[in-house]
Amino acid sequence: MSQALDTPPAASARPEPPETDLAALAARHGLTVSGARPPLGAYVRQLWGRRHFILAFSQAKLTAQYSKAKLGQLWQVATPLLNAAVYFFIFGLLLGARKGIPSDVYVPFLVTGVFVFTFTQSSVLAGVRAISGNLGLVRALHFPRASLPISFALQQLQQLLFSMIVLVVIMIGFRSYPDASWLLVVPALALQFVFNTGLALIFARMGSKTPDLAQLMPFVLRTWMYASGVMFSIPAMLEDKNVPAWLADVLQWNPAAVYMDLVRFALIDQYDSSYLPPHVWAFALGWAVLAGVVGFVYFWKAEERYGRG
Amino acid sequence: MADTPQDRRPTVVADGVDVVYRVNGTGAGRGTATAALNRMLRRKQTEKASGVRRVHAVRNVSFVAYRGEAIGLIGTNGSGKSTLLKAVAGLLPVENGHIYTDGQPSLLGVNAALMADLTGERNVLLGGLAMGMSREEVKARYQDIVDFSGINEKGDFITLPMRTYSSGMAARLRFSIAAAKDHDVLLVDEALATGDRSFQKRSEARIRELRKHAGTVFLVSHNNKSIRDTCDRVLWLERGELRMDGPTDEVLKEYEKFTGASR
Ligand SMILES: Nc1ncnc2c1ncn2[C@@H]1O[C@H](COP(=O)(O)OP(=O)(O)OP(=O)(O)O)[C@@H](O)[C@H]1O
Ligand SMILES: [Mg+2]
């Protein structure tokens, strides 16, 4: 079955050698240059054809994650809970970062921030290893490589859903009860998922070339976390500092802060729109589209090179 | 190869292919931190000065493979067989020349672990889906794949993670998964060498079957008997050059003379 891919994109800038017999033979029978990258449209179709693989792979990875631990799948819920407890101990009790936030809001505020940021953080970290950590699979079987980073981002989304169970319990414990505004969580997390997938694609390509990124990224991500207001409110923090008002807006337009604020706004009753920067939904959408499109195209551009070497 | 009937459809065309490896950090003190820093800082140097060595692994190789052929690839260690197959699979860039293929060739190598932390069961399912089979197709063929691999002959191993398999067991499962689909071009690089005799017999039968489904199979092996049993044509590579290309008996006779004499 000859794949009817039309002329592959010029893989190299080298001038074509004079057409010999063999090249003509190959052309006559519709053979294509081995390992050439498919055009973007065909690539998207191939990827869609692998949707069952993408989903099944993410689920398999999710369950395999804790398969070596004695408590098994319990860690799915215990890990985010412990995470939140550590941050509460350090920032809530020891450092008093809850400035400007009433204390019964602070715990839900902090836990939401930790969970939402972790979603992006772990997607990036999984992205870095998506290709470089699965070379055996990439070399043995042929499939559109973008399946891997997308699948890892999907795994983090499923992990987040476990965290959300913990979050709901905490919310109710601190007297934020389910109401219609909770539905806003769905679009907010959907946009964040697209954003995360874009980042995972970008870092998958970079990580396939430079595996050292796996060592470096945790530090970059931690810096990002501290700058995004996971454990403090950005406007409240800047209030008595002598800084122009727009600076708070700019800091709050950082994608991690945007998605955190939206989920907090949706879930926590007292966290009202006065805590949100202007045009926050537009930024949420903009970041998602930007990262998604740029990430996908950037990843596809190197499709023929993954697994080489 | 001179007569090329019109109805024979080529599946792989290699046209004057050269493959060159570039190896970093072969200068003094390679692998140390300072050497690595040096390399990063002086990226724009000429290849030679920055300690990059070139290994010319495949030189000007041309051949045409047709549907329904099983082609053996022989040559002494380091002669470029694995390199050539990787280039055909599109996993290595060619320096000069072109490789044209019909569809996407699948390469089965020795050390291609699929998903080591997942169970054999999951590997079968995910491997099938990754190759583009539907869920129903995988389900329908699941038992065949497991039976063919013989993984469960010694107990319930298919539900254990693949990292717990012996190298022969892993190779068998990998081959069984990849062979479950009818490939246009299947490249087998010593993937059967760790299997025991009964599995080798079964996989040779499967290779013959794949040929019947109008596919092309390349087989690298140091086992001349296995080449003789499965292949009707043999390419002999030596020092990266295509030394002979012809019917199995002729080429093997020359090759055996060569290896016998040089020993
Ligand atoms: N990753 C690599 N980097 C640099 N040189 C390499 C690399 N892989 C192989 N080579 C070189 O390319 C040449 C051909 O190697 P190749 O692995 O293709 O041999 P082979 O015919 O498969 O040998 P064998 O029978 O031992 O498997 C050898 O000289 C080897 O040193
Ligand atoms: Mg080899």
What does this structure look like?
- The complex is a heterodimer of chains A (309) and B (263).
- With 309 residues, chain A is mostly helical.
- Chain A has one domain (61-303).
- Helices cover 66% and strands 1% of the residues of chain A.
- Chain A has helices at 21-28, 40-49, 51-65, 75-94, 103-132, 135-140, 147-173, 185-209, 213-227, 234-238, 245-252, 255-267, 280-300, and one strand spanning 32-33.
- Chain A starts with 20 loop residues before the first helix and ends in a 9-residue tail after the last helix.
- Chain B is α/β, with parallel strands linked by helices and 263 residues long.
- Chain B has a domain at 5-104 and 222-262: 3-Layer(aba) Sandwich (Rossmann fold).
- At the A-B interface, helix 1, strand 1, helix 3 and helix 6 of A face strand 1, strand 4, strand 5 and helix 3 of B.
Strand portion of chain A, in percent? under 5%
In one word, what is the shape of chain B?
A: globular
The N- and C-terminal alpha carbons of chain B lie at a distance of 31 Å
Biggest sheet record of chain A: none
Individual helix count of chain B: 8
CATH homologous superfamily classification of the domain at 5-104 and 222-262 in chain B: P-loop containing nucleotide triphosphate hydrolases
| DSSP summary, beta strand count of chain B | 9
Indicate the low-confidence ranges of chain B by residue numbers.
1-5
Q: Radius of gyration of chain B from the CA trace?
A: 21 Å
Secondary structure elements and pairings:
The complex is a heterodimer of chains A (309) and B (263).
Chain A lengths: L20 H8 L3 E2 L6 H10 L1 H15 L9 H20 L8 H30 L2 H6 L6 H27 L11 H25 L3 H15 L6 H5 L6 H8 L2 H13 L12 H21 L9
Helix pairs in contact in A: 3-7, 4-5, 4-7, 5-7, 5-8, 5-9, 5-12, 7-8, 8-12, 8-13, 12-13
Chain B lengths: L9 E14 L9 H9 L11 E14 L3 E5 L6 H8 L7 E6 L4 E3 L11 H11 L4 H15 L17 H13 L5 E5 L7 H16 L3 E5 L3 H7 L2 E6 L2 E7 H15 L1
Parallel strand pairs in B: 3-7, 3-8, 5-6, 6-7
Antiparallel strand pairs in B: 1-2, 1-4, 8-9
Helix pairs in contact in B: 3-4, 4-5, 5-6
The site of adenosine-5'-triphosphate has 12 residues of chain B, from strand 1, strand 2 and helix 2.
